[in-house]
Amino acid sequence: MEIKIVTRKVNIYIKKHLLEAKWRKTVKLFELDIKYPSLETELLEPKEEMIYSFRIDKKYRAMFMIKNNVAYVFRITNHYK
What is the SS3 assignment for the chain? Predict the structure, then answer.
């Protein structure tokens, strides 16, 4: 599945938090298999919103929606804040 970043803020967040290398590695894994174990991809609550997340590392997660077999990433979050 292809990944596209929806907002400029996502790119800024990735650079600000020095996640570029981890992001590239995660995208490769995601594009190979959305359910790759280390990604811990999950459907978030409320499930009817159809918002998913996957792990970039232990601290950061990417939130996305799927449309026409493309994952649109709209936010990176600090999972523990």
Answer: CEEEECCHHHHHHHHHCCCHHHHHHHHHHHHHCCCCHHHCCEECCCHHHCCEEEECCCCEEEEEEEECCEEEEEEEEECCC
Say how far apart CA 27 and CA 3 lie, in whole Å. Answer: 7
pLDDT tens column, 8-58: 999 999 999 999 999 999 999 999 999 999 999 999 999 999 999 999 999
| Interatomic CA distance for residues 10 and 33, integer angstroms | 22
CA–CA distance, 59 with 36 (Å, rounded to integer): 18
Give the total residue count for the chain. Answer: 81
Residue 77 in this model has a pLDDT that exceeds 90: yes
pTM: 0.91
